[in-house]
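Hi L.,

You mentioned the student needs an example of a multi-chain input paired with its predicted structure. This one should do, with 736 residues in total across all chains.
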Amino acid sequence: MAMMSGAQMLVRTLEDLGVEYLFGYPGGAVLDIYDALHDSKKIHHVLGRHEQGVAHEADGYARATGKVGVCLVTSGPGATNTVTSIATAYMDSVPMVVITGQVGTPLIGSDAFQEVDTIGITRPIVKHSYLCQKATDIPKYLRQAFYLASTGRPGPVVVDVPKDCVRPSVKFEYPEPEPVKMRSYNPTTQGHRGQVRRAARMLAEAERPVLMLGGGVISSEGSEEARALARMFRLPVVSTLMGLGAYPGSDAQFLGMLGMHGTYEANMAMDKADLVLAVGVRFDDRVTNSVPKFCPAAKIVHVDIDPASISKTVEADIPIVGDAKTVLSQFLDSAGEQKLSCNAKAMDEWWGHISKWRAAKCLAYDKDPKVIKPQQVIESLYRATGGDAIIVTDVGQHQMFVAQYYKFDTPRSFLSSGGLGTMGYGFPAAIGAWVGQRSRPVCLVTGDGSFQMNIQELSTCRQFHIPIKIFILDNHTLGMVRQWQMMFYRGRISWTDLNDNPDFVAVAKAYGHEGQYVDDPSKLDAAIDAALSKKDSLVITDIRCDTDAKVLPMQQGGGSMSDMFMSEA
Amino acid sequence: MRQIISILLENETGALSRVVGLFSQRGYNIENITAAPTEDPSVTRITILTQSDKVELGRITKQLHKLVNVIRVYAQEDDSSGVVEREILFLKVQAIGHGVRAELKNLCDIFKAEIVDVTPEQYILQYVGASSDVDRFLKAVEDSADVIETVRSGVCGIFRGDHSLRV
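Structure written out for the whole complex:
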């Protein structure tokens, strides 16, 4: 029977849960935990430089590996600094456990030094949260937190640990791990058999079906099943931003991303479809455009593990609650049992329409011998990496260009803040991704605005030799906001210019990394190749891009899926 | 539409705040709410009275189910056949002079209310009934005497018939 302090139990519980990496930042309330951590041989601690970065690192680790990302921060400002990161993970359903220090229980409520109501502040942005009352709560709550974070619809869980619960002088018996059971939490994973049978029949009978994939397919590891189903019924496949990589981007049946900056063929197919099989999606407003005009001819089959997501915005004709992978394989079984196949004649005709939409080449753009176009940076990066990199983005134009021009063939290759749209997410998330997944190069595509929101993590990369390749699409402006100002605010550029950026090459050097600047289109490929060839170094490539480039196509607000601006004019 | 939602949830710190927070953060309205432990002290039962249409009610119940602490949720549109519901009303009224005191006593007899506290100048009246009856009684008293203070418990409801809300 092992006797341990609360702090030792915390560390031991993490070890027993299989935690290898802990992202953290020390402080007063977590001193005892850090002291106990000093003795751990199994847990590697990664020191961020700001708690927001720390928690995004745990998020990036989780998205790249599928494991629970864990971070540890102190009370008060340590905890509040993680709020944006927690909300980011919540919106994108990322399994994450955030351990926050708290003032001692006798001080709670007294406005003590570095006290804040962490549970209260984070309540609307967590899947669940725990405030430990005594040392023996720590193992119990941490195990529940991991279980909750990683099952059902994944999400962040906060465990708030008051300082007196981790006091080294008081020892308790460490409870051996046992399976977590919670009477109030039983997510449904298996889809309703009758509903699946009906939906599978509809899929076979449909004349203009579309398979729409979202982040749920990636979290449930359901890509293979999705591919098999698409093959079986010759389905055109579209993807949400979060679903990119769930289906191979270079496959002939893939029409691209749908929604606000989706491809012409993807949005047209949705608009004309008579059946949409939507798997692991939540019909975000950036996907649907105007809901009453959304897919007017289509029956909607909606598969999701979260019952609250079904018929939340778009009414489902056939709702199926279940895990995406499980339900997709139920579809395959059911189609086999019922000997279903696609309606060949109708599908020939449907693909004929799609080919015509494809021929519009909505992603074509004009190159300029003097100015680098942001689109061409992404195309060059795709060429240079052979599509085999983990690409992490920040938020804005560059993010959309990556989504449109980089073809993601495997899941967990594209990490981006979709739901919350958090500028500053990309760099720390890329660090987390590299920590969890070192077999592939990790590239950050960012903007000059976004990158400066968590630039301090360059120091973390220096300390832990994290050789991320950073590509700044440097257009000296907040590109996406500028795009809206140009298109919808009569060109009144209000505070989006960023003409006083630092010299990013000098910044790289100041932090002990390498940097290069490129503004000549003819030297772009060479610069990208040079960065990627330096396997062991972090390299910042500051790429001066066209300030006036626009992300197109773009849906017209308040319209249907097919109402799109195809060009600036 | 007037709806009564009954919830069983873990009797844990902060569980009630998650339920209440859900209503405010999703823009749903709470008309009144009651909460107390059940025969099993680890389980709290909450009754919420809200105004919402069928679609919104569906969304609310799904969001409530999603809360990790929530064990069961049941909602039924309020047609009086489906729910037995009561509310308690206490009224502190000015009761000076024979006329007023007699009239108040008379009203209590008619409504089957009780006078639970008496001072030379005030009565405390207690009334138990469905919310609409509470409204009627309150109106009747207000018409006959000066009301100093009122307190209503909020609705406590149980669904009729075979349906039962248990862990």
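You could point out the following to them. Chain B has four helices and nine strands. The CA atoms of residues 87 and 155 of chain B lie 5 Å apart.

Best wishes,
N.
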